[in-house]
Design goal:
Rossmann fold; 3 domains; elongated; 21 helices
């Protein structure tokens, strides 16, 4: 231990004990399609699961879906609501207008997806993860991104079957931008609910998982005293009113209790008031406990052939009559597929539609027995997400020699990370300074030790000694150690980006690496060009400047050669690579001072680094390193 005249009490302050760090609530974003209430109802299951884990959640949706979720989650104070434009409803119109609308709506959908992604990406690092149900633009380079979809392949409308392969591959390409595709169905090709919609070869090279059904209806122990429950939500409004009135007229001929849920948060039910009677009740929208109660009380359900409705029916073992929305090829396919397996009765909407005879056929159907139900499906999803949203424990080691001008800014930036405070620690290693470096570090320890794990230690002179001293103080739970210069600063999302990149790229195969480094502001275009070149060289040669990131157990076992005062990082990286892959994280959150380059010249410094990197290790030992301050 080297004494220092500015801190005679160094021995007593060498290792600070710290209090447990405090943490802020984790945050998640759910982007939910409004093209039918099914996306909202099935997403509710997962939203509630993460609310129970203490997450603050932002929900992006619009229209009936947003209104419905507001009603369902009205009592929660941990939700931020955002109303954002959704994609146009495809497969609308009649005759040749259908094809005209289809082309225009596809173009508009693509434009909206690109726009929402550009706007969202700028703030995506605010969230621990992003979960999308039918919103393709909500994925991120720097936050774990997941999507729920049962429709991997599309059933083309008449006249377009020859190009169905194109739509399938385009959809798969969009889905592959997410870290994981969760498919709410079962993997068995002969025992599933979605048929060719989800079981398709285009998924062969995509990260996907069949997770099972998701239903937002809990099982309630109540009497099934509703003979027929009509659930007629859906987003193709042009077909809806005629369809509902036809059902209401024929429902009068049925014996027993009938209940209609229109699935429209904005409707008042006035258009259908004339059809109400003692045993026929109409609800514009049912949410919360009422929605759950009505579904559990039903003996038979009459509904559109939406996939979420199918999952609800299977979860509760209900018999049902499915009536696909005209021109909506997904519902038409599901009705045909499930009807052919005799799980449900499916009938087309037409003037000749006979409700009574169709309901008689439901008594002969065979209820689908699911391999597992919603509770296990939710557990599978959360377990699968866990690997990518896991918060690695980082140890940040900062060797500091005469860094009174830079150290304060560096510590301020690191301690302002938007990363759980109990999942990283900071170790400042004072290294033979003759200025106020120690005193500045002491101030930070005194100020932050109650909320953040921060230590101040001393080492003998030499950067290798400093790094080894910091490494010896790393917490037992440390998984990754970051060695950074005292003039290297972290923007608020630096650790979040590193964590996401490491988790996404198979952390167990990685051993050591570095990140992109930008020149500290104000930076000229000339400086940015040189730093870009340096980053390219470091990536190519598997070397680093200003920052190294290594798996802590490997770093502990290797350490730094105390006889090296420069190029110690190159030797360290070379030795670590024996135990795993070198990696380069293209972060935009790490900056460093340009003082050395301004003093030595960018070209001259680059040439010097090249020569030093090629020198044998024996020639580097015990050579001095010129300090630029």
């Amino acid at each position: 231990m080297q004494a220092n005249h500015q801190h005679s009490n160094a021995a007593n302050l060498g290792h600070h004990s710290v209090k447990p760090a405090t943490t802020t609530a984790p945050r998640a974003l759910f982007a939910v399609s409004s093209l039918g209430l099914g996306h909202a109802t099935r997403s509710l299951v997962l939203i509630n699961a993460f609310l129970a884990q203490g997450y603050q959640i932002t929900i992006v949706s619009t229209g009936n879906a947003l209104a419905f979720m507001r009603l369902e989650l009205a009592e929660s104070t941990a939700i931020d609501w955002q109303d954002r434009q959704d994609y146009p409803p495809l497969e609308r119109g009649i005759g040749w207008h259908f094809y005209r609308y289809l082309i225009l709506d596809l173009i508009k959908t693509w434009i909206i997806i690109q726009k929402e992604h550009r706007e969202f990406e700028r703030k995506s690092t605010e969230y621990d993860f992003i979960f999308s149900d039918g919103r393709y633009g909500f994925y991120s380079r720097w936050s774990p991104s997941f999507i729920l979809s049962h429709q991997i392949a599309f059933v083309p409308p008449k006249g377009l079957k020859e190009i169905s392969w194109l739509s399938d591959h385009l959809n798969a390409a969009a889905l592959k931008k997410f870290d994981q595709i969760f498919i709410p169905d079962y993997p068995c090709p002969s025992n599933n609910l979605s048929g060719n919609l989800s079981h398709t070869p285009v998924l062969n090279d995509a990260r996907n998982q069949y997770v099972g059904i998701l239903s937002s209806y809990p099982h309630l122990n109540i009497n099934q005293d509703i003979d027929y429950l009509f659930v007629v939500s859906g987003y193709l409004q042009e077909h809806k009113e005629t369809f509902v009135k036809s059902l209401l007229q024929q429902a009068h001929q049925l014996a027993g209790v009938k209940v209609f849920i229109l699935g429209d948060a904005k409707a008042g039910g006035g258009n259908y008031k004339e059809f109400e009677e003692d045993n026929l009740i109409i609800y514009p929208l049912a949410s919360g406990l009422l929605r759950q109660e009505l579904f559990n009380r039903a003996q038979c359900v009459i509904s559109r052939a939406g996939y979420t409705t199918v999952m609800d029916l299977v979860e509760h073992g209900k018999k049902a009559l499915l009536i696909p929305t005209p021109n909506q090829t997904e519902q038409e396919y599901l009705g045909y597929y499930l009807g052919s397996l005799n799980h449900f009765v499916s009938k087309e909407q037409s003037l000749a539609f006979d409700l009574c005879s169709a309901l008689d056929e439901t008594q002969q159907t065979k209820i689908f027995t699911p391999p597992w139900q919603t509770s296990e499906s939710v557990a599978k999803i959360i377990e699968s997400m866990g690997r990518l949203i896991y918060k690695n424990f980082f140890t940040i080691i900062i060797p500091a020699h005469n860094e009174e001008k830079e150290l304060g800014r560096t510590l301020d930036a690191i301690l302002a990370q938007r990363y759980p405070a109990d999942r990283f620690e900071v170790i400042v290693v004072e290294n033979g300074s003759t200025d106020a470096t120690w005193a500045i570090a002491e101030q930070f320890v005194a100020k932050y030790e109650s909320v953040q794990s921060i230590q101040l230690v001393q080492s003998e002179l030499g950067v290798s000694n400093a790094k080894n001293a910091g490494l010896s103080r790393a917490a037992a739970q440390s998984e990754w150690v970051i060695f950074c210069d005292a003039d290297t600063q972290f923007a608020p999302h630096a650790l979040h980006q590193m964590n996401t990149w490491i988790n996404r790229h198979g952390s167990m195969a990685l051993s050591v690496g570095t990140t992109r480094v930008l020149p500290a502001e104000p930076a000229s275009a000339y400086a940015r060009c040189w730093f870009g070149l340096y980053d390219f060289i470091h990536r190519l040669t598997r070397s680093s400047y200003a920052i190294q990131v290594a798996r802590t157990p490997i770093a502990r076992g290797i350490g730094f050669d105390p006889e090296l005062s420069f190029s110690e990082d190159l030797v360290f990286i070379r030795d670590c690579r024996r135990y795993g892959r070198f990696f380069f994280i293209p972060s935009d959150q790490i900056t460093t001072s340009v003082r050395r380059f301004e003093a030595k010249g960018y070209f001259r410094q680059g040439v010097r680094w090249l020569i030093e990197s090629l020198m044998p290790v024996r020639m580097k030992k015990k050579r001095s390193y010129d300090v630029i301050r």
